[in-house]
Amino acid sequence: MPDxxxxxxxxxxxxxYPAIRTDELTSVFRLSVxxxxxxxxRQLLEAVNALEERFPYYKVTLKIGVFWFxxxxxxxxxxxxxxxxxxxxxxxxxxxxxxxxxxxNCISVEFSHILxxxxxxxxFLKSLLFSYFLHCGITIPETVLFLRPGETPDYEEYExxxxxxxxxxxxxxxxxxxxxxxxxxxxxxxxLNISVFEIPADAILKKAxxxxxxxxxxxxxxxxxxxxxxxxxxxxxxxxxANRILRIEVPVNxxxxxxxxxxxxxxxxVLPEIDLRLGHYTxxxxxxxxxxxxxxxxNKKLIHKILSRNVGGERNLIVxxxxxxxxxxxxxxxxxxxxxxxxxVVTNLGRVTFPSExxxxxxxxxxxxxPPSKKLKANCGVVGFxxxxxxxxxxxxxxxxxxxxxxxxxxxxDIPHKIIRY
Length: 422
Known about the structure:
Blueprint: E1 7-9, H1 17-20, E2 28-35, H2 41-50, E3 60-64, E4 69-73, E5 80-82, E6 98-103, E7 106-112, H3 118-135, H4 161-165, E8 193-200, H5 201-210, H6 215-232, H7 236-241, E9 245-253, E10 267-270, E11 273-275, H8 283-297, H9 300-315, H10 317-320, H11 324-339, E12 344-352, H12 356-359, E13 362-368, E14 378-385, E15 388-395, H13 401-412, E16 418-421
Parallel strand pairs: 5-6, 9-12, 12-14
Antiparallel strand pairs: 1-4, 2-7, 2-13, 3-4, 6-7, 8-15, 8-16, 9-10, 9-11, 14-15
Helix pairs in contact: 2-3, 6-8, 6-13
């Protein structure tokens, strides 16, 4: 990053987070790598120090402008702390908006969504992990691609890829009905409970493929089927009062559609659903619906339409000239309306792959999505490594019935798994 780039505007996805974040709705996600041996503190600190100049676009603090928030470079050191608190805590006003945490054999990074999405966060974690291994005297094969310490950051790493690929199209706003939400009371603060499902990847992939589904489609279908089961356990009066659209928000990594090396946010959302006003869905019916909706909504032309709609809004001349305090109020309102239209979130980061000589040092990866809102109440993050698929449920309610329903379905499909508290 050249010295002349002293500040950066927020990207399209980041703009909403400063307006909505609180000590509970932190917009912070966590990525963890669990090693097979205890982390060596000195080597980890050396690895972090080696990365200080490699990611200048993350060494920023949030500033308040007249019309938008923006990011300004900050020289403070990357924070490395023992992992003693609940995951995904908020960042304070003058902190960098990412941190490195360590506990026993686990290295974690936490990022504010203001900086990046989970794909960008994962690339940073890979660089940190490989830098750590190098300082432990472990050779990294030349074929392994990662952002290496000492390299000069490429402009494309910190560009706003939304603006790069924006092209105005006819893209009217979607009018979606409000969706069903978990009917459980909230925990007392601190509310967030984390449950991690550890599943053999080959077992669940075999079941997904036998149903003609991708892994993501299979997990969304199970989630919807579990929500339907919860709805059907409600008393008749509650059923009649509840919204009967079950809809899941699914982030789509735009780097799979557009060539980009950006380390900032670059994703949009699709919304597969089932409509219980049409009656009870068998799992097969739910899965078929999800499959066709996902195939339709992830068509590149429709993805471009979503991108155009999202970026086009911020480019509106009237929107540009609205003072920030009014924008923030409007963004909070839009966020509340938005979360009323989906019942849960499933974010699948995909499978992390390394050469065998590196893989043998690692047990698993874990992805904890940002804490859900009080309306949404639960969400799910997914990542695979080797033959271990981890599903991480973040839940702020007093009930774990959603997780129980998910587990019951897996057992019913002869998919072995274990559940651990993070």
